[in-house]
Amino acid sequence: MSSRGIRQASAVVITMWLATTMAGCVATPPPETAAAAPTPTATATNTLAPEPEEEVQPITCDTAFTAERMEMILDDGLTFRGAGSTGDIDEFVGADGLRCQWTRPGTDAVVRYANWERDATAWEALKTQLLTEGYVETEPSSISRETPDLDGSYSFRDGVVHYVRPWNFIGWATALQ
User: Fold this and answer.
1) What CATH number does residue 71 fall under?
2) What is the domain count for the chain?
3) pLDDT tens-digit readout, 20-48
4) Considering the entire predicted model, what is its pTM?
5) In this structure, is residue 118 part of a structural domain?
6) Nearest to 173 by CA among 150, 154, 147
7) Structural domain of residue 106, as residue ranges?
8) Cα(105)–Cα(109) distance, integer angstroms
9) Whose CA is closest to 103, among 120, 82, 130, 123?
10) Beta carbons of 98 and 116 less than 8 angstroms apart
């Protein structure tokens, strides 16, 4: 065989070898009986933790008014006299409410705060009663009365009635901030 013939024979052998080798690389469909397994897909998930809800602390006599107002009350010589009877509003507060009172010894100076839970219907009944007694509506959910012998403000928010005396302290009630 001549060198040209050897090259042609080699080329044929290489071509056949490549053809059979490459035939294995062609994708063939899976057999009809084989079930295709689902391909997992990546899904986006929110990896941020939800913000914790701020726990609402219950109002106490120490936190009834803003820190600035509490400082003024104490600087004016008023001292905490307990969470007992508050006289003029005891019938409204009932057994479940909070009562706070600060007084200045030897004077009639008094600061009061009270709160108690009521539904909107009970608030409307109380508001109607107080309006007939001379209180005036200062906002849709607040009423006040300023008189020499008795002054105070009531405000209703989130199912709770808040009372303050003197009437103009309502703006410093922590729960109404």
Assistant:
1) 3.40.1000
2) 1
3) 444 444 444 555 555 555 555 555 555 56
4) 0.66
5) yes
6) 154
7) 61-176
8) 8
9) 82
10) yes
